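quick q for whoever's on today - can somebody do inverse folding on this one?? i tried earlier but teh output was garbage lol. tokens:
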């Protein structure tokens, strides 16, 4: 029950983020690291990836497709980490400190949680809640 609810919540989060990437790419372009080629196309593709991952995660028909979506969203969260770090560096460099460390440190710490949540919600992993089998009695 909790896993299904969090799966739908995560799907809604990624669906909104994907939508935002497509209709208002400017904030995402502003935090794009300079080493990323074709930033406009990358933002467009990341929005599409978020929408596809959210759809796969939310659909009720195929556990395999949910797992593919979960792995895809976990990899996505890992791949956009440099943009989040770049956002923090840009933001903290402005004279007023931007959003500040109180915003950016939890956001950076949440990235591994998002990766795990995508894998757990999709059923790829049960860690740390799945019980380990007991070793056979000697």
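ok took a stab at it. sequence:
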């Amino acid at each position: 029950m909790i896993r299904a609810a969090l799966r739908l919540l995560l799907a809604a989060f990624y669906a909104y983020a994907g939508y935002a990437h497509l209709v208002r790419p400017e904030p995402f372009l502003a935090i794009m690291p300079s080493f990323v080629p074709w930033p406009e196309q990358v933002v467009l593709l990341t929005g599409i990836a978020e929408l596809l991952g959210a759809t796969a995660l939310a659909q009720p028909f195929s556990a395999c497709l949910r797992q593919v979506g979960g792995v895809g969203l976990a990899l996505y969260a890992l791949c956009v980490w440099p943009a989040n770090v770049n956002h923090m560096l840009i933001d903290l460099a402005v004279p007023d400190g931007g959003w500040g460390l109180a915003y950016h440190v939890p956001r950076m710490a949440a990235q591994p949680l998002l990766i795990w949540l995508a894998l757990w919600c999709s059923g790829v992993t049960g860690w740390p809640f799945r019980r380990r089998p007991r070793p056979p009695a000697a």
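fwiw The mean pLDDT is 92. also The radius of gyration is 17 Å. so keep that in mind when u check it
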